[in-house]
Amino acid sequence: MLQNEVKKLTGLTRKAIEYYEEKSLINPIRKDNNYREYSMEDVKTLKKISVYRKLGCSIDEIKEIINDKGKLASIIRNREIKNDLEIEKVEILKNLMNDEFDFKKLELIENKETLYFKLTRIFP
Q1: Does residue 112 have a pLDDT over 80?
Q2: Residue 25: which residues within 8 A CB-CB, separation 6 or more?
């Protein structure tokens, strides 16, 4: 199918579709007239990409998910850890507001963050 039909089916713009192609997330066939021919699999992938983008996934994360379905669990876990750390920081801010600041707690959170980022570099 041609790009106009893909746009209708996915709700994506021409620019977005071509961007995802440029990033090798989809690979439509080029016809003799140089028009792109999209498959239903391309449409399915574009719909998934759209959902992942709306959920805040980066292009690199989406590439990982598309190439290895097991990566999604890893990405979810990374987000959970980051969210937990952010919640702990908010709790410290609340305590600051009430003049109940605990430096040891902040140091513990910083150590968790450092450890988390070191581990994600070693085991992506």
Answers
A1: no
A2: 45, 49, 59, 62, 63, 66
* Encoded amino acid at 21, one letter: E
The ranges assigned to domains in the chain are 3-67, 71-122
Torsion from C-alpha of 88, 94, 95, 99, nearest 10 degrees: 160
Measured CA to CA in angstroms, residue 99 lies from 89, 94, 96, 107, 110 at distances of 15, 9, 5, 17, 20
Q: What is the pLDDT of residue 94?
A: 82
Q: In CATH, what is the architecture of 3-67?
A: Orthogonal Bundle (1.10)
Q: What is residue 40's predicted lDDT score, i.e. its pLDDT?
A: 97
CA angle 29/22/34 to nearest 5° reads 35
